[in-house]
């Protein structure tokens, strides 16, 4: 059976959060039809013009279609959700104001209209919406606007053939800024007073669309692209075709914004625009291949931003933001393969994680390096042209890449896509009777336990000035050397998704040529320390070798690692944390570019948490906070919180309440979660209960609070009191589990048994996988404490 089109007419009662609907569904194929439809009030159903009987259990409408071509008509009414952030829901702002917005991925279009809510059932959609005068309606296509009695009628043009989860509808007092200088026109829509902050996103979007059109060899398909800032939004952004939705802090930025904020906006906009081709134009057949959508968009977004803003060195950002989190989660026994079979809705939502995004993108980067960039591009372009307006699988992509490159990719991709985890390569120089030989052995890298899995590894290494490549297909690789090498580094520029440990660490350190390679040694040896495979002395050797390495990437990585060590045990690691951060900070006291300012911000923010003397000195800038550079505000606010404590709470709270943008609110919340007195952190978290902290922001707030070693017990007490409300907000998504997976590891230090027993007794099914991940990382970090 195939759906040809949906004709949808809706009449909204905006004030009372409800709507009446009429829907006409055109179908090919006869037999039993099952429409997904959650909690509708159904008034009448007709098949081919005749009223028909139907079955409805609150989730599925069962109808019998008697012809080869059928028209199903449904009259219904529906309430707009005011508790959750999926389906069609109320998104609040400014206390009593709101917009109505939608979020359908993965299976929530059924909360909006009766439909066959599967990605393979692509269809054309035509929507008409009646609303009160003064309200604006946004959807995937342009609209003709006319009067309809006392209301306004928005008649949207029909969409291209697309999946149900890509449909969008937004209603509210939207303010817009538009660029129609070329096709497509690009429009940013916000709540009132914020649209001017959207001009930077328009600039990014214009450059990114041009880049993708050239790279893919396919023009953007729709006449316009809306970029919509939704005031309450569960996810970071959503790729609805022609009407992309964002959290405000993923879309809005200007010259006063921090470097990190501008990079985030650029990357998220580029990510969602990549989906307009990879995901919207060509869509996965089923959610098993979700990673195809997300991995590819993640990979391409960094490529696009690196092209349009080369000064931001996006492949460095990629390592910290995508590769590193993915390698942490993929080193756990609770991980899953990139391509994982899913059957029900709960399993689908669990797949939106660091494996589907970060690992998949990192594997694509590895394959691009192996095939050569131009062959990779040709394969991608061929794939998109072949399957446009249709559905495809991972195998279809491998076939296109193999044809373009002449390389057989099946075995390589099966090794990385269908197996969980990744290898640790042990590199040795062995002296024999006739000289030396290079020996490489692979074993699966796990933070806890052992496994015999092996992988087909695209091996790259630099030996005495020469770059060499090889395919490691067995557990070991050996080659003869004429003499002991004066240079040897494996995994050049960290293109491979694997870790490396060296018998001769000094040789590896002196062989580093680029910031990406310095980052590689730091990151690998930090996680070797966490896994117990090396001792603290060995890790410190790498740390001190690169503490004065002049690279924002390296300094940012050091800041992250020191933040973790300090959070685990301030007494044990405080001295080394302060020493290394002070060394790193000296590199950036006179920053020359934006990335150097960001490095200063990250290092200084971490140092302020660990060094009260430093915090006291920097906090003196708080009097001029509103006039500070965007990159300086975060460390100054944290320093103020650490050094002033009780006096700081009211000052920071007042600034938080006056702040208009999410970027600034989150910055101030970060500071307010840095207090060393637990009750002040509890007061800050209490703003969630009053609604002053948005429902969407608990995703960031809880992990940030858990990293404060002085407030763990206070945060734990607060979480137990509020866990059911958080679960309810994110019901129907995998976000609740991800919040717990990111919160438990540091929150649980010193309370391991108590926290484990609590979650065992509570049996929270919806967050079960996230809880297991969090507890496994906690067990590893506890070894360091």
Write the layout of secondary structure elements.
Blueprint: E1 2-13, E2 18-28, E3 31-36, E4 41-47, E5 50-51, E6 55-56, E7 60-65, E8 69-79, E9 87-93, E10 97-103, E11 124-132, E12 136-139, E13 143-148, E14 151-156, E15 169-172, E16 175-179, E17 185-190, H1 199-216, E18 224-230, E19 237-238, E20 243-247, H2 259-275, E21 282-284, H3 290-308, H4 314-329, H5 345-350, H6 355-371, H7 373-387, E22 390-392, H8 394-405, H9 410-417, E23 423-432, E24 435-444, E25 457-463, E26 466-472, E27 476-481, E28 488-490, E29 499-502, H10 505-511, H11 515-530, H12 536-546, H13 552-568, H14 570-585, H15 594-610, H16 612-619, H17 630-644, H18 646-658, H19 662-672, H20 678-689, H21 698-706, H22 712-729, H23 735-747, H24 752-762, H25 768-784
Parallel strand pairs: 1-11, 17-18, 18-20, 21-22, 23-29
Antiparallel strand pairs: 1-2, 2-8, 3-7, 4-5, 4-8, 6-7, 9-10, 11-14, 12-15, 13-14, 16-17, 19-20, 23-24, 24-27, 25-26, 25-28
Q: What structural keywords apply?
A:
785 residues, alpha+beta, Immunoglobulin-like, Neutral Protease, domain 2, eight-stranded mixed beta sheet, five-stranded mixed beta sheet, Peptidase_M1_dom, metalloprotease, protease
- Computed over alpha carbons, the radius of gyration is 27 Å
Instruction: Give me the side-by-side strand order of the main sheet.
Output: 5-4-8-2-1-11-14-13
Instruction: Please name the fourth-level CATH homologous superfamily of the domain at 1-170.
Output: tricorn interacting facor f3 domain
What is the name of the CATH class of the domain at 1-170? Mainly Beta
List how many beta strands DSSP finds. Answer: 29
Name the average pLDDT. 92
Helix content: 40-55%
**Helical run tally:** 25
Relative strand content:
15-25%
* Category from helices, strands and their pairing: alpha+beta
The biggest beta sheet reads: 8 strands, mixed
CATH-assigned fold name of the domain at 1-170: Immunoglobulin-like
Which shape, going by the Cα principal axes? globular
Low-confidence stretches: none
| C-alpha termini separation | 59 Å
- What is the architecture of the domain at 1-170 at the second tier of CATH? Sandwich
